[in-house]
Design a protein that fits this description.
- By secondary structure, the protein is of the alpha+beta class.
- The protein folds into two domains: 53 residues; 35 residues.
- The chain has two helices and four strands.
- A two-stranded antiparallel ribbon has the order 1-2. The protein has a two-stranded antiparallel ribbon with strand order 3-4.
- The longest helix is centred in the C-terminal third of the chain and has 33 residues.
- The N and C termini lie far apart (89 Å).
- One of its GO terms (cellular component) is cytoplasm.
Length: 106
Amino acid sequence: MAKAHSKQNRAVNKAPKTERYYTVGYAPSGSKTSPPPAIHLTGHWLKDAGFETGFTFTVKILNGCLVLIPDSEDTRAIKQQNQQQQAQLSAIKHTMRELMAEYISS
């Protein structure tokens, strides 16, 4: 006999949920103006839909709908390369500022 909280009657081939319900909140902005709206999505269903932790994605706005599109491997590689180049550029700018400060003070 199955226990009261048994998962024996659980559906084996249950169809994945295709709808989720959320409430638009706000993101604190630290200013006195009204904070901007924010949506925070969580759940293992994101991974099932192709949204791995740390992966990037694109948001498109189409006819009042938000469409979330996981970036392809190529797009992720390009974005990562861009971040590396931005970091290198920042380091070069920092070095240039230091050199200019040394030149001016001497």
